[in-house]
Design goal:
By secondary structure, the chain is α+β, with helices and mostly antiparallel strands. It has one domain: Jelly Rolls. It is built from six helices and twelve strands. It is globular and about 55 Å long. Bound molecules: 2-oxoglutaric acid and fe (ii) ion. GO terms for molecular function: metal ion binding; oxidoreductase activity.
Length: 303
């Protein structure tokens, strides 16, 4: 059946009420039939939901723990110190985003989170860069010089997640019935902006105009999201406009599709609206990494 046929069937389906777990253990299996079987599951979820959990994603816990620890320390610094890295003062929006500086959904009063944005950078600057730091978001990252652990830990996670993202493109290609190397020449200097986020607890009377991050879709091909265990905040909108909780599931990352894949597939793949509200009474941290292609890739219909 063609993808369009599958999409027509999907349109008849019930709105989703949960988010599936996809096990990546067979992602690089030498047997194509096994990889294809995995890709078929991915395709189904991409057409119907646009959100999934990834299991066996291959990033060691220690790398995640270190990035979390360093992020907590950074966000606990005094505001004046953090404001030295204000993203509005840096080339192409790298650095610190204070609370309420963003507003993903203009109906609300601003996003109740602070963040720190980085783009491509080699961990060791030895002149052997694996790729060029070019494209629309080119420009150096900014880092607190007296807190080297922050750069080391956050960038180590960034590179581990980039490795994972690179392996996912062939899986998406298979899911779209394309050659597995379809994205290879389109992801040489792929867009890959990562944000470390801190959501303070939302306490007091519930005000629907106050959210951690307002309802939105992501822009790129897909997002890999690590969210802090044990704290429910992320929600995903289904076809009946119901908010479905996407709680952290131990041992998984969340993956959601973005507008670039939706546009590229003529909306066969779904870029699903989501938001986060941190009403659990505790501080919450999350780390999304937004994967696009090279900035100059032409989006020609691929299904
Ligand atoms: O923090 C989260 O769970 C969601 C973050 C998000 O949706 C985003 O940064 O685009
Ligand atoms: Fe998002």
């Amino acid at each position: 059946m063609s993808l369009v046929g599958v999409a027509q069937m999907a349109a008849l389906n019930e709105p989703f009420d949960h988010i599936s777990i996809i096990d990546l253990k067979d992602m690089c299996n030498p047997d194509l039939a096994i990889r294809k079987n995995l890709a078929d599951h991915v395709r189904d979820v991409c057409i119907n939901v646009g959100f999934l959990y990834l299991q066996n994603y291959g990033i060691p816990d220690k790398i995640i723990e270190d990035a979390l620890e360093a992020s907590k320390t950074f966000f606990s610094l005094p505001l004046e110190r953090k404001m030295q890295f204000d993203f509005r003062k840096t080339p192409n929006y790298k650095g610190y985003n204070p609370l309420l500086s963003g507003n993903h959904d203009p109906r609300y009063n601003g996003d109740l989170h602070e963040g720190f944005d980085i783009g491509w950078e080699e961990l060791r600057a030895d002149g052997n860069d694996k790729r060029a730091n070019d494209g629309a978001m080119a420009g150096a990252n900014v880092w607190p010089a007296d807190f080297p652990k922050f750069r080391e830990s956050v960038l180590t996670y960034y590179h581990a997640a980039i490795e994972l993202g690179r392996k996912l493109f062939p899986l998406f290609a298979l899911a779209l019935d394309l050659p597995e190397d379809f994205f290879d020449d389109k992801t040489k200097n792929a867009a890959a902006i990562m944000r470390v986020l801190h959501y303070p607890p939302q306490t007091g009377p519930v005000d629907d105009l106050v959210v951690g991050i307002g309802a939105h879709t992501d822009y790129e091909c897909f997002t890999l999201l690590w969210q802090e265990p044990g704290i429910q905040a992320l929600q995903v909108l289904n076809k009946q406009n119901q908010w479905i909780d996407a709680p952290p599931i131990p041992g998984t990352l969340v993956l959601n599709l973005g507008d670039q894949f939706a546009r590229w597939t003529n909306d066969v793949f779904k870029s699903t609206v989501h938001r986060a509200i941190n009403r659990g009474g505790v501080h919450r941290y999350s780390i999304p990494l937004f994967f696009g292609t090279d900035y100059d890739v032409k989006l020609e219909l691929c299904v």
